């Protein structure tokens, strides 16, 4: 069974993002940050419906991840993908929907639905909402594609995707509804890695979120992927040393510090004290670093 979700958004958010070029991920945010989104699974479609009276589905994306994040982190991860030109504008919108003045001393927690491969329909392709849609719905609703309305929405979306010169979603036009593997962008990579490492540095256990980075083990520009198994959550200073090759991670998950750190800087006692420590790894083995990317870092980046 494959579901899809229809979420309600404002026209300004849609209009801004649909005018951008090369958008590979978006953050469909909610101003409240009390409960996390669990309506659909990664790989299912999340569709955009405009506020009434524009009762149309106007685009969507592949659901990748949901989280509750401080607005500053959401902006840093997704930037324009939040549907705003600046962080200040995004904060104003959040305050508006919260029905309260913008408090500059508050880093609002917001609900984030992270979508990859977003698509935006021109107005002549907008899809009318199903008759089963209730005007009392506040945020959105889930549709089962094994039922009539859900299957109809799936087919309408696939029909419009097939008409695009470069369709973001490669699914057979007349095939059965199926999960779609999300292609993570930089922002989705950062948030996903942060979560699977339980928001703590894999080496030190540090939990101060603003100084934690989702590090690529093999850089994206050198053949690495935006994939959780190519990531580590590291404190900013350790991330910098990792990228420069002064530290690495052994194939069995131990922190290693090279001799070059002391030779080049006559220092590093704090880091040498962590030599040989076991990293704090994700509980799911499939989300842990792949041996081949760790070996790539040891052979191609580590200074020894």
Short note summarizing the structure:
The protein is of the alpha+beta class and 304 residues long. The chain folds into 2 domains: 160 residues, Roll (Archaeosine Trna-guanine Transglycosylase, Chain: A, domain 4), CATH 2.30.130.30; 115 residues, no CATH class.
Plain-language structure description:
The model has no long low-confidence stretch (mean pLDDT 92). Strand 10 and strand 11 form a beta hairpin. Strands 1, 2, 3, 4, 5, 6 and 7 form a seven-stranded mixed β-sheet that branches. A two-stranded antiparallel sheet has the order 8-9. It has a two-stranded antiparallel sheet with strand order 10-11. It is an alpha+beta fold and 304 residues long. The chain is elongated and about 70 Å long. It folds into two domains: 3-162, Hypothetical protein (Archaeosine Trna-guanine Transglycosylase, Chain: A, domain 4); 186-300, no CATH class. Helix 2 packs across helix 5 (186-196). It has nine helices and eleven strands. 27% of the residues lie in helices and 23% in strands.
The N- and C-terminal alpha carbons lie at a distance of 51 Å
Task: Name the poorly predicted regions.
Answer: none
Major sheet description: 7 strands, mixed
Assign the CATH superfamily of the largest domain.
Answer: Hypothetical protein
Gross morphology is elongated
Helix content: 25-40%
Give the number of domains.
Answer: 2
Q: Count the strands?
A: 11
How is the CATH topology of the largest domain named? Archaeosine Trna-guanine Transglycosylase, Chain: A, domain 4
Radius of gyration: 22 Å
**What percentage of the residues does DSSP assign to strands (E)?**
15-25%
The residue-averaged pLDDT reads: 92
**Structural class assignment:** alpha+beta
CATH class type of the largest domain = Mainly Beta
CATH architecture descriptor name of the largest domain: Roll
* Strand and helix order: EHEEEHHEEEHHEEHEEHHH
Q: Helical stretch count?
A: 9
